[in-house]
Specification:
Helix content is 69%, strand content 2%. By secondary structure, the chain is mostly helical. Helix 1 crosses helix 11 (229-262), helix 8 packs across helix 11 (229-262) and helix 12 (286-312) runs parallel beside helix 17. The chain has a two-stranded antiparallel ribbon. The protein has two domains: 2-38 and 185-395, no CATH class; 43-175. The radius of gyration is 26 Å and the shape is elongated. The two termini are 15 Å apart.
């Protein structure tokens, strides 16, 4: 098999498809970079507008309560809570306004003051939710960030800003186009590039590798060679991993270096907040998130590889192979998975295609954990491999 792997790699490593795949991965990861070069970043202004919108909404409620003649005790308490929220938001707005009045050398310090003010408000909202008064809260709807008035949502926001303030890290909004390189690459996988698109690129490479012999008409030669057909097929799988995974990593490296040269590097300590059990809050760094993302993406790619392998045994048509893989990939879309019974979903490989949501435990279907997901994906891959083995034993043709 070693000779077959060497032969496949020598035959395919200079293929034009590899360059196309590299370019495709790189362009996907650099979409927001090109936008950042052509337009000014407005994330700070967007955040400030979010504070203003929240405060304006509060003041509207305050005006309605103040217009009530002879208010009862409950109305008075509600008005007091609204005014308390207003004071917190006004402090945030004032701190953020000061950003325009400081020298660049003091900009980080000024931003930290804004974060402290936001943290104070988030702590207040957490206390209110814990006291059962969450209905009257106005949550700051920052662009690119899900608003969550639940107890868990309040805990997440408090943990996030506590971490930033403790480690003196400046907040990098999810919509920031000129984010530091560490944040840029993480946000690409978190918000900007669907994992289904990445898998689609893998599917194109797989279709090319597993149908090339049939399209060239050289498949008959491989079928008459006195060598195990399963070994030939397995060698092609190894070739895919050896060729395509480095291409993806190279694209990540190109995107990272490009962002680092244009912007800054940032901190690997930057927090990503999540909850594994729906009750307690945990924090992972950007580096940990990226490692988990790559590990899970590799496991999903292996499963898609087995789908492509199985299809190639029946059809040498490139389009058929790619379409079959894409159909399987689309089965992992949230719109499809939400229709699957929760008890069944965790055992399906498609439940783990939304890699970012899986890592942060934000899927609407129950998932025990990332490790469990990897086991499920590899188990289904082995099952498909066994199917390929059975087919080849029966007909001895690739």
């Amino acid at each position: 098999m070693h000779d077959q792997i060497h032969f496949d790699l020598k035959k395919n490593w200079l293929a034009t498809t590899n360059l196309v795949i590299l370019i495709a991965f790189t362009l996907l990861l650099l979409v927001t970079y090109f936008t950042a070069r052509s337009t000014a970043d407005q994330s700070d202004n967007d955040n400030y507008n979010a504070y203003n919108v929240a405060d304006d909404k509060l003041l509207t409620h305050v005006a309605k309560l103040q217009a009530i003649k002879n208010p009862d005790a409950a109305t008075v308490r509600k008005l007091q809570r609204r005014m308390a929220q207003h004071e917190y938001l006004k402090t945030i707005e004032l701190a953020h306004t000061d950003l325009d009045n400081v020298f660049t050398t003091n900009l980080t310090k000024a931003r930290l003051e804004t974060e402290k003010a936001v943290l104070a408000y988030e702590r207040y909202t957490l206390r209110e939710v814990q006291a059962g008064r969450g209905k009257d809260l106005v949550v700051i709807a920052l662009p690119g960030k899900k608003t969550d008035k639940s107890l868990l949502g309040r805990k997440k926001d408090v943990a996030y800003y506590e971490y930033l303030v403790k480690h003196k890290l400046v907040e990098v909004p999810a919509t920031k186009k000129d984010a530091p390189a560490n944040n840029y690459i993480a946000y690409a996988f978190l918000y900007n590039v669907s994992p289904l698109l990445l898998l689609a690129v893998f599917a194109v490479q797989l279709g090319q590798l597993f149908t090339v012999e049939k399209r060239r008409g050289t498949i008959n030669f491989l079928n008459i060679v006195p060598r195990g057909k399963l070994g030939v097929l397995t060698a092609r799988m190894v070739s895919f991993l050896v060729l395509t995974v480095p291409l993806f990593l190279a694209a990540c490296g190109i995107a990272y270096v490009t962002a680092a040269q244009r912007f800054e590097i940032g901190s690997w300590q930057y927090p990503i907040v999540y909850s594994a059990d729906g009750q307690h809050v945990s924090i992972m760094g950007i580096g940990q998130f990226l490692l988990l993302y790559l590990a899970l993406l590799l496991a999903v790619a292996v499963f898609i590889m087995m789908v492509s392998t199985l299809v190639s045994l029946y059809s040498g048509n490139l389009a058929v192979n790619i379409v079959a893989s894409l159909v399987v990939i689309l089965l992992g879309a949230p719109q499809v998975m939400t229709r699957v019974p929760a008890g069944l979903a965790r055992f399906l490989p498609t439940a783990y295609f939304q890699i970012n949501s899986v890592i942060l435990h934000e899927t609407s279907w129950s998932i025990p954990g990332i490790g469990f997901g990897v086991v499920v994906l590899l188990a289904w891959s082995l099952l498909l491999y066994a199917g390929c083995t059975l087919i080849l034993r029966r007909r001895q043709l690739i």
